[in-house]
């Protein structure tokens, strides 16, 4: 068995154990939050008999271990339970809201990569000069300012003052939406050949994705710069300088790849964490995503929806973690073979 395959198997087993632990922990936390979910779902005008009937229907009148066992039995059949908030199966709600958040997160991740890494490379290449100082100041501002503050700033400047981008939503209200085939507006518009909807969706996506990506851009730029500066101190870089290789060749060919390993790790983890951190940005921009839905079900103490949402976010985080491990192993063979022997 190849070392890479062994690494993948080990990560998958560990991920299943983590998911089981997350499900138990979140199930317990959701049950001990103050408030009666049956009463919250039915409202203050419901009779006690109606509340008791709903408790019995959802097994809320049974001990927590019995409730968890019933939940696991349903989960084994692909059923995440029913939402008290929307009165629909949780998987239906997640299928509706998850594509919007994934669209936002993947675009933010693309911005983090295409902006953060070049800024870090340029800062390292011109370290100590004015370009490096500007890049470092911008990186610190990106990291230290919360995403929702960036959202408000971008709305004020680019949507209200200059009117270059829309303030909220995924599409203009007066524009017909493309036929829903995947739930991703960009993909659906492309598949339908609807150029107007595609451009409009991209137009709506820029500001919220940029607001969500700002902290990641700053962190990626800072880490790329630090890794590149450390790599510049290696003997093989000094040898390349001694041979008179151009600075651009040294930076792009010899210094960049060794410095990429910690950057990829942080990028992957940041991309997965965006799923959980997107709720403030989605609230600011009126983005109908899973993170915003998660906040609503928490406020309504919607037990199954809370656990289902957290499980989806945890699964995405673990998948991103495995993907990063494999990508880093491909970039650095020493890590791949070390992982295979562990």
Shape: globular
Order of helices and strands: HHHHHHHHHHHHHHH
CA distance, first residue to last residue: 14 Å
What proportion of the residues is helical, as a percent range? Answer: over 70%
Give the overall pLDDT as a whole number: 89
Q: Concise description?
A:
The protein is built from 15 helices and no strands. It is an all-alpha fold.
Q: Helices, strands, pairings?
A:
Layout: H1 3-32, H2 37-42, H3 48-57, H4 64-76, H5 90-125, H6 130-144, H7 147-161, H8 185-192, H9 195-232, H10 235-242, H11 247-277, H12 279-284, H13 290-299, H14 303-331, H15 333-341
Helix pairs in contact: 1-14, 1-15, 5-6, 5-9, 5-11, 6-9, 7-9, 8-9, 9-11, 10-11, 11-14, 13-14, 14-15
Write up what this structure looks like:
The protein is mostly helical and 342 residues long. It contains 15 helices and no strands. The protein is globular and about 85 Å long. The two termini are 14 Å apart. 35% of the residues are buried. The model has no long low-confidence stretch (mean pLDDT 89).
């Amino acid at each position: 068995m190849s070392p890479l395959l062994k690494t993948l198997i080990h990560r998958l087993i560990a991920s299943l154990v983590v998911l089981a632990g997350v499900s138990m922990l979140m199930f317990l936390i959701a049950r001990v939050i103050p408030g009666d979910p049956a009463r919250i779902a039915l409202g203050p005008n419901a009779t006690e008999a109606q509340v008791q009937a709903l408790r019995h229907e959802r097994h809320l009148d049974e001990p927590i271990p019995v409730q968890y066992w019933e939940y696991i039995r349903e989960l084994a059949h692909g059923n995440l339970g029913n939402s008290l908030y929307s009165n629909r199966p949780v998987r239906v709600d997640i299928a509706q809201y998850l594509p919007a958040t994934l669209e936002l997160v993947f675009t933010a991740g693309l911005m983090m990569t295409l902006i953060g890494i070049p800024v870090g490379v340029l800062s390292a290449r011109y370290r100590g000069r004015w370009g490096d100082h500007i890049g470092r100041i911008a990186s610190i501002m990106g990291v230290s300012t919360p995403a929702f503050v960036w959202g408000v700033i971008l709305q004020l400047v680019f949507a209200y003052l200059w009117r270059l981008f829309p303030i909220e939503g995924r599409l203009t209200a007066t524009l017909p939406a493309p036929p829903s085939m995947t739930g991703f507006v960009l993909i659906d518009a492309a598949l339908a050949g609807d150029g107007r909807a595609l451009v409009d969706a991209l137009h709506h996506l820029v500001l919220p994705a940029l607001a969500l990506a700002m902290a990641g851009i700053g962190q990626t730029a800072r880490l790329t710069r630090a890794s590149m500066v450390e790599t510049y101190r290696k003997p093989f870089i000094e040898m390349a300088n001694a041979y008179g290789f151009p600075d651009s060749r040294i930076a792009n060919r010899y210094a960049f790849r060794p410095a990429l390993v910690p950057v990829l790790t942080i990028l992957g983890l940041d991309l997965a964490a965006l799923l959980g951190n997107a709720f403030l940005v989605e609230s600011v921009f009126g983005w109908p995503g899973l993170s915003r839905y998660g906040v609503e079900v928490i406020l309504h103490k919607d037990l199954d929806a809370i656990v289902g949402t957290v499980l989806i976010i945890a699964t995405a985080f673990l998948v991103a973690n495995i993907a990063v491990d494999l990508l880093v192993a491909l970039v650095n063979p020493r890590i791949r073979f070390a992982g295979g022997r562990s």
